[in-house]
Amino acid sequence: MNIKKTVTGIIIFLSFSCSQRDAEYYYLKGYKCYKKQNYELAIECFNKAIDIDSKDADVYFARALSYDWLGEKDLAIADYTSAIKYNYKGTGAYYNRGVIYLVVLNKYDKAISDFEMTIKLDSMFLKPYFKLVEIYGEQYKLDLFAEYLNKIISIDPLNAEAYFLRGTNFANQKRYQQAIEDFDMAIKLEPHNDNFYFARGGIYAVLDNIELALQDFNKGIEVNPKNSTLFFVRAGLYRKFLKDNEKAIEDYKKAADLGYNDAKTALKDYYNIDYQPTSK
Fold first, then answer.
1. Among 226, 229, 228, 202, which Cα is nearest to 216's?
2. What percent of the chain is helix, strand and coil (3-state, nearest 5)?
3. Is 135:108 a contact under the CB 8 Å cutoff?
4. Which of 34, 43, 133, 230 has its Cα between 20 and 30 A from that of 170?
């Protein structure tokens, strides 16, 4: 046995083990700083950990999160990319990088790629589906918009937001009965969401079912009495269809009080009333 080589090997092994422990120490210290929202100090610790072990995906991901919170988006992208390169196990690196590409840099193709990869890693994680719905909605790619909403509903059939968005898509295509069915489901799942009543009431108004439209606008206002839009559209029903000018004026004033500027214009145009809101 070559004793000299054996001793050298032991020394190298021990040095490597100590380095690993030192890297872990700085990582854990940085993580504690991160949890306390001391991101600058966290980054200092993560830097030291990376100096010792430059291939630890978890450290790159943690530093990326810190940069992300500080608004250093380019540095965050670089670290998310390094985390991916060194086989980060979770979905966060792809998803978070995709969010930056979408929200900050408007790089839609790269965002789509990252969200699709996130789904490939975890097909039950709903956030990337919603991000793809957002992108395809903005790009007016309605088939893809609907496809990903359907996927969300197949994964989570109790997701009220997905039904609401799909109903909105149906409404934009003048597929009103399907829109109403989806809004019905959204309201069943979340009966205290005033936007759902507003959306369904709007469809009923388009279909000249003023009674049901009024019921939905009334319910929406009951749920959220600070929704200025609901007061404004209800005023329109009272004025145009129900010929109840007293209630229309009352609702226009309420909408104006809540900050809906078009309500002041309506009062002037329809009733020659110069109204100064009492509050916002």
1. 202
2. 80, 0, 20
3. yes
4. 230
Is 228 in contact with 206 (CB distance < 8 Å)?
no
CB atoms within 10 A of CB 75: 16
Nearest-angstrom CA–CA distance, 240 and 215: 16
**Among 258, 137, 257, 241, CA closest to 194:** 258
| Predicted confidence (pLDDT) per residue in 59-70, tens digit | 999 999 999 999
172-203 residues labelled b (16+ CB within 10 A) or e (exposed): eeeeeeebbebbebbbebbeebbbbbbbbbbb
Contact (CB, 8 A) for 201 and 187: no
In this structure, are residues 146 and 169 in contact, taking their beta carbons and an 8 Å threshold?
yes
User: What's the confidence (pLDDT) of residue 279?
Assistant: 66
Tell which residue, 159, 97, 102, 98, has the closest CA to residue 126.
Answer: 159
- What would the two tokens of residue 191 be? 């009966």
145 with 171: CB under 8 angstroms? no
Q: Which residue has tokens 């032991």?
A: 10
**Which is nearest to 50 in space by CA: 13, 78, 91?**
78
**Coil, strand or helix: which one is 123?**
coil
Provide the pLDDT for residue 21: 76
pTM of the model: 0.87
Q: How many residues does the chain have?
A: 280
Query: DSSP readout, 35-72?
Result: HTT-HHHHHHHHHHHHHH-TT-HHHHHHHHHHHHHTT-
Query: Is 8 exposed, middle or buried, given 0-12, 13-18 or 19+ CB atoms closer than 10 A?
Result: exposed
Amino acid at 106: N
